[in-house]
């Protein structure tokens, strides 16, 4: 799809009866002739909609456990979306619901404009899923199982594409080996190859880098970027903020079955990037001296500490002028410490805010 | 043109299931040949020498349809139940559940593969039996029809068992405790007319009687119950199993959370 978008973005109907924007036709600006007539208003509309739309989704397991609580989430076409959350937050449940493995209790999900229940064939055909657990057959060959995956999704055989996919994942040499002879990292790559076998538009990666060494992690990240550049929308789950930082365009934080934040990565990093400098004063202060009011300072309740909050992302932390001013004001401190807000703090503060 | 069916997916699952058979091809062929030979040595020769004829047929020939039926039932059930139980067990079922395949396509491909294998085994047994006794088949088309119908019906039962079972014991329990006894008591090795009147009545509650009787009729034109009843009963099972399997897939019973 992205390929198309690269070709022609804007289409103007010069008859002036209507002015249309065609998101599917980028390059052929102002030339009516080169906008393929196949792009109907419906196509264009569908293209500009979120590729996945999750509305008021809840999941209660048979045990009575409510694993997802009223989830509302839109995934944009072509983005890398990270779902960040601690163990048991509901990441896998959410992904499994979208893919059709878990039945939703309430709410609805549409994928590419197709409802996942009523129109499961169309919605599932768009999706490739790499599960969290290493679940593979044993006796089948690598190439055999990838061919099977492609067929299962109703795609005609395409040896050239499958060879390329296996080569990209460094599995081509192993194509005739039975799966049980692969290492854990190879099996994980094989699961990716299986998920990609039917050329999906959306790829779900459930903790792709769990149990994967540093080199392979790099490779995987590169692969994900390459896929994104070819127009695939990617949704990955992770426990690690660094991973989200490295990869994602947008991040959602999920905790106890609730989405507590959806943010552009840059914005989240800004929030996460806050650091605090605490100065333990030698003598307590009643109030902030006027020389220091230009800094974003707070005096602790007992007057024994000054707390300075700053962004790590900023070039100038402002610490040097602050310390200068403190010195000039004649304030003495006997200790200082810095702390960084962790993901944990963010969870805590977000959950608190909600209550 | 493809009747709205995802034929590519059906083919993929069918091939995958058949590949399992090919990997163990020797075992798949040799064991029925050996077991059939054993049956003929034990039942055909040892016992059969004392029972001369049943309904004008030599005892050895008489038991052939029952032997084929016995194999057909047990293999249909075990193939199909294992086929769907195993991905559930090793959790590769996620792929099937997330694929754009309908319930019908899943059933057709798994049941089709299991039935194919059991029919091939049935024919191997028939051929082996032909080495021991002179075979003749009065109604070959009906024979094939019963073979197909029974294989499909009981592969469906196996499919249901495979979904229902959540461990290996459960997988074994139905074939072992229900199907095998019913088959042995269903007239595989005797005509139910050889039983005392009371047991003849009781035996009519055994569904397998109808299967074996109909199948034997297609060979020798003799039957314990009228053929149309055999057909109707098999059809009834088929309908019941189709309904159950469809219900299981629709509700996600033991497959989806
Ligand atoms: N089949 C099930 N029946 C009952 N509860 C379940 C089931 N599957 C998951 N849960 C519960 O739902 C919650 C969310 O589980 P889920 O697997 O979605 O978490 P997760 O965010 O993927 O965790 P992790 O990071 O550990 O993979 C957990 O509390 C889990 O115990
Ligand atoms: Mg998980």
- Total number of strands of chain B: 2
Outline the biggest β-sheet of chain B: 2 strands, antiparallel
Low-confidence parts of chain B? none
Q: Which value, in Å, is the CA radius of gyration of chain A?
A: 26 Å
Please estimate the helix content of chain A. Answer: 25-40%
Regions with little confidence, pLDDT below 50 for 5+ residues of chain A = 1-21, 26-34
Span between termini of chain A: 42 Å
Ligand species: adenosine-5'-triphosphate, magnesium ion
Classification by helices and strands of chain B: mainly alpha
- Provide the helix percentage of chain B: over 70%
Main β-sheet description of chain A = 6 strands, mixed
Gyration radius of chain B (Cα, Å) is 19 Å
What best-fitting shape of chain B do the alpha-carbon axes yield?
Answer: globular
Strand coverage percent of chain A: 15-25%
Number of helices of chain B: 10
Mean pLDDT across every amino acid position of chain A: 82
β-strand amount of chain B: under 5%
Number of helices of chain A: 12
Instruction: Please identify, by name, the CATH architecture of the largest domain in chain A.
Output: 3-Layer(aba) Sandwich
Count of domain modules of chain A: 3
What does this structure look like?
The complex is a heterodimer of chains A (355) and B (257). With 355 residues, chain A is an alpha/beta fold. Chain A has three domains: 2-48, no CATH class; 52-269, P-loop containing nucleotide triphosphate hydrolases (Rossmann fold); 273-354, Alpha-Beta Plaits, CATH 3.30.70. Chain A is built from twelve helices and 14 strands. In chain A, the strands form three sheets. A six-stranded mixed beta sheet of chain A has the order 6-7-8-3-9-10, sandwiched between helices. In chain A, α5 (142-152) packs parallel to α7 (184-196). The longest helix of chain A has 16 residues, at 214-229. In chain A, 34% of the residues are buried. The model of chain A is unreliable at 1-21 and 26-34 (pLDDT under 50). Chain B is mainly alpha-helical and 257 residues long. Chain B has one domain. Chain B contains ten helices and two strands, in the order ααββαααααααα. Chain B has helices at residues 7-23, 25-47, 59-89, 93-97, 103-132, 140-164, 168-184, 197-203, 207-220, 227-251, and strands at residues 53-54, 57-58. In chain B, β1 (53-54) and β2 (57-58) form a beta hairpin. The longest helix of chain B has 31 residues, at 59-89. The complex binds adenosine-5'-triphosphate and magnesium ion. Adenosine-5'-triphosphate is lined by residues 61, 63, 65, 67, 85, 87-93, 132 of chain A.
């Amino acid at each position: 799809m992205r390929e198309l978008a690269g070709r022609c973005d804007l289409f103007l109907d010069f008859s002036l009866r209507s002015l249309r924007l065609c998101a599917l036709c980028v390059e052929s600006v102002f030339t009516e002739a080169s906008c393929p007539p196949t792009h109907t208003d419906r196509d264009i509309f569908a293209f500009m909609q979120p590729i996945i739309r999750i509305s008021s989704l809840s999941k209660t397991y048979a045990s009575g456990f409510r694993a997802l609580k009223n989830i509302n989430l839109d995934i944009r076409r072509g983005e890398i979306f990270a779902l960040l959350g601690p163990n048991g937050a509901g990441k896998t449940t959410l992904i499994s619901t979208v893919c059709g493995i878990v039945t939703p209790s309430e709410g609805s999900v549409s994928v590419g404009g197709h409802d996942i229940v009523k129109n499961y064939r169309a919605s599932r055909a768009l999706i490739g899923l790499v599960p969290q657990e290493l679940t593979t057959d044993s006796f089948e060959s690598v190439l055999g199982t990838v061919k099977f995956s492609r067929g299962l999704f109703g795609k005609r055989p395409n040896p050239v594409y499958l060879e390329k996919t296996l080569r990209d994942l460094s599995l081509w040499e192993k194509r005739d080996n039975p799966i049980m002879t692969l290492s854990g990292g190879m099996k994980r790559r094989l699961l990716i190859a299986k998920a990609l076998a039917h050329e999906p538009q959306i790829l779900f990666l459930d903790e792709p880098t769990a149990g994967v060494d540093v080199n392979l992690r790099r490779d995987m990240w590169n692969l994900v970027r390459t896929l994104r550049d070819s127009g695939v929308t990617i949704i990955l789950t992770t426990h690690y903020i660094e991973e989200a930082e490295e990869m994602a365009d947008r991040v959602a934080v999920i905790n106890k079955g609730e989405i507590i934040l959806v943010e552009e990565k840059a914005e989240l990093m800004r929030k996460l990037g806050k650091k605090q400098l605490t100065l333990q004063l030698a003598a307590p202060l009643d109030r902030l001296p006027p020389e220091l009011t230009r800094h974003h300072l707070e005096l602790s309740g007992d007057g024994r500490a000054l707390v300075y909050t700053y962004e790590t992302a900023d070039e100038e932390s402002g610490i040097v002028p602050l310390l200068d001013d403190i010195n000039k004001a004649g304030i003495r401190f006997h200790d200082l410490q810095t702390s960084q807000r962790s993901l944990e703090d963010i969870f805590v503060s977000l959950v608190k805010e909600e209550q | 043109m493809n009747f709205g069916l995802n034929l590519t997916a059906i083919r993929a699952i069918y091939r995958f299931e058949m590949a399992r058979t090919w990997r163990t091809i020797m075992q798949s062929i040799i064991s029925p040949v050996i077991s059939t030979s054993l049956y003929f040595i034990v039942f055909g020769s040892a016992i059969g020498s004392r029972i001369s004829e049943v309904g004008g047929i030599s005892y050895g020939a008489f038991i052939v349809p029952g032997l084929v039926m016995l194999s057909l039932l047990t293999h249909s059930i075990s193939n199909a139940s294992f086929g769907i139980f195993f991905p559930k067990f090793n959790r590769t079922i996620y792929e099937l559940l997330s694929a754009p395949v309908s319930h019908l396509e899943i059933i057709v491909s798994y049941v089709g593969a299991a039935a194919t294998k059991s029919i091939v085994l049935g024919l191997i047994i028939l051929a082996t039996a032909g080495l021991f006794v002179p075979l003749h088949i009065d109604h070959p088309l009906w024979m094939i029809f019963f073979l197909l119908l029974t294989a499909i019906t009981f592969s469906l039962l196996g499919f249901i068992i495979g979904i229902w079972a959540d461990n290996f014991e459960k997988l074994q329990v139905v074939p072992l405790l229900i199907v095998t006894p019913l088959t042995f008591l269903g007239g595989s090795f005797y005509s139910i007319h050889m039983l005392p009147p009371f047991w003849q009545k009781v035996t009519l509650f055994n569904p397998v009687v109808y299967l074996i009787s109909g199948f034997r009729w297609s060979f020798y034109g003799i039957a314990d119950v009228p053929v149309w009843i055999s057909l109707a009963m098999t059809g009834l099972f088929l309908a019941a199993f189709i309904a159950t399997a469809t219900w299981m897939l629709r509700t996600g019973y033991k497959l989806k959370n």
